[in-house]
Amino acid sequence: MEEIQSQSEHYRSSSSSASSPASRVPSSNFFYLRKPGSLRQPISFEDSPEWEDTDVDVRVEEGGDSINAATTPVSPSLSKLNSGSLPSPQLPEGAAVARKIAGASVVWKDLTVTIKGKRKYSDKVVKSSNGCALPGTMTVIMGPAKSGKSTLLKAIAGRLHPSAKMYGEVFINGAKTHMPYGSYGFVDRETTLIGSLTVREYLYYSALLQLPGFFCQKKSVVEEAIHAMSLGDYANKLIGGHCYMKGLPSGERRRVSIARELVMRPRILFIDEPLYHLDSVSALLMMVTLKKLASTGCTLIFTIYQSSTEVFGLFDRICLLSNGNTLFFGETLACLQHFSNAGFPCPIMQSPSDHFLRAINTDFDRIIAMCKNWQDDNGDFSSVNMDTAVAIRTLEATYKSSADAAAVETIILRLTEKEGPLLKSKGKASDATRIAVLTWRSLLIMSREWKYYWLRLILYMLLTLCVGTVFSGLGHSLSSVVTRVAAIFVFVSFTSLLSIAGVPALMKEIKIYASEESNQHSGALVFLFGQLLSSIPFLFLISISSINEGLMLAVASLWQNVFWSVLTLVTIHVVMMLAAGYFRIRNELPGPVWTYPLSYIAFHTYSIQGLLENEYLGTNFAVGQVRTISGFQALHSAYDISPSSNSKWENLLVLFLMAVGYRILVFFLLHFRVRKNVSLHRLCQCNRNSTT
């Protein structure tokens, strides 16, 4: 304790602020001030709404699935937004008023998450965290990198990785139950968007995938989501741009990913790093938009690494983490008071979030080591000479014995002593509807995305032109047989190689599937059928690649990386070319590797055989004046084919079975390999039940 007190006294003397909270009160234009004189009274968590205020009267409108709230609690910090200190965006003329949402209370109690090997110092990523989120409020989980923010958010949402195990309890409206489909939304840190669609098209197709009912009923939901996220000016613009036109800025892209979840009208919305890769202006606009969304009654829980003073003033409650430990939970102003009580008051000219992270981020210890015994023109660096480990221990000990921690336990007890209304699922779109939607959407994407099939078609046309000119004038004599075999081999092999140009587009499609499957918007079988049906018109133009399309999907699903997928496909095609029977007749290939199984699993072999059999079977060549030989005899010395008249149909059957087999392999890879890399909702619900 003597070490802690000495460190605290040192920081008090080196800080530009005074030791008392009253002396560090900034000017009234700072956004995190509620009203003059508010800091004179002790800041308590008891100011938050009680359980009785969060009860809602839920009713379902006739003829629809929309849910309205008779009463919606208002955030106690909304006055900061409506007081005039921060102007709200003006609504366009004729715009509808935001729909009220019946939010839900979320409580987590003694929440601990363990991941083996995740941290060197401990396998506990989150340690005995307590907190709650109320309807109509924004609750932020803040902390430095690798502090457990995203893990805690995913644990509350029930989306932990299978390697993680959760202990503790999560209550929704006072009941220990999972959140059904459609009652909540989750936005990952990085969401893959479809650049070739406009914002309105993207949200409309998302609504068709998520919501049951008729197509015409989804338009109003999409317009509400566009209005809620202030995307009216970008509704008809392509997300990724077109040709020389730029796509949406990063801030608008982030709002589109949030709007995708709003089409379900969720009562709880989880967002992982909503300010990820955003500048200060985009970040402020994002938080103002989320504040408006919270004012409709939705419960918002999100993570943030750092924020400006203006953004910090919009938060209602903050959960401060460091190395998995909860250093504070309560109102934002109470957090400032907490740091002051612990001996680390926030300087006047410093942002609160910067001050918090400066005190609890262990990475600053490296800066202390660099600045030790180092001076500049303005003096020494004593202002940064603070041991973060001591600060973390001080803040944690102060919080555990504070009135804020006791207030959290009190409100958790109030919110869990009786059960509120249970969340209900709004239903899903049928698999047939999803297949039809994905087919039409993929068809639209393929027609607009020139890198998908149009580039490959151009390459095939150039290859055809080159092969046609190089092998022109062959004639139909016996001497042209060997050269014609070479032409067919070159065409089949090079066409398969050039099809690898479609790997980046397929990789993007798999990422879109993974993003949608994580939120249960799609499935492996639905994606597979939709992609297959939508590619049929284009594969008719380049039919030789229809089998190779399945192979590319399988490899891309296996690696989920462009470089390794391209390298693997090139290697496979080179091996297939060697085993195709052109460089050496298949029956003369050394076994067992080259003859069995390589020569029999290479689709080059059956493609070339089918083309040659169609070309030469049933034909005759004159040898001298009186003797003729069949096409099979003429070809036998150059390439191994079957003399049967039905052999070309057998080769077509083998190629068809290969195409089907590759698709089946893709299904299992999507179902197990890709799904393994996204959070599993059902498994997390099982982990949630194993509480201690």
Automatic annotation (TrEMBL):
Indicate, by first and last residue, each region the UniProt record lists as having compositional bias (Low complexity). 13-25
Instruction: Give the GO cellular component terms, alphabetically.
Output: membrane
> Mind telling me which residue stretches traverse the membrane in this protein?
453-475, 481-503, 524-542, 562-581, 652-672
Q: Which domain of life is it from?
A: Eukaryota
* Residue segments, region Disordered: 1-25, 64-90
Keyword flag Transmembrane helix:
yes
Q: Where is the ABC transporter domain?
A: 106-348
Q: Report the subcellular localization.
A: Membrane
Q: Where is this chain compositionally biased, Polar residues type?
A: 68-88
Named from the GO MF annotations, one term is: ATP hydrolysis activity
Question: Which keywords does this chain's UniProt record carry?
Answer: ATP-binding, Membrane, Nucleotide-binding, Transmembrane, Transmembrane helix, Transport
Instruction: Look up and give the membrane topology term.
Output: Multi-pass membrane protein
In terms of Pfam families, this protein maps to: ABC2_membrane, ABC_tran
PANTHER family recorded: ABC TRANSPORTER G FAMILY MEMBER 11 (PTHR48042), ABC TRANSPORTER G FAMILY MEMBER 3 (PTHR48042:SF12)
Family as reported in the entry's similarity comment? Belongs to the ABC transporter superfamily. ABCG family. Eye pigment precursor importer (TC 3.A.1.204) subfamily.
The name this protein carries in UniProt is ABC-2 type transporter family protein isoform 2
Q: Which organism is it from?
A: Theobroma cacao (Cacao)
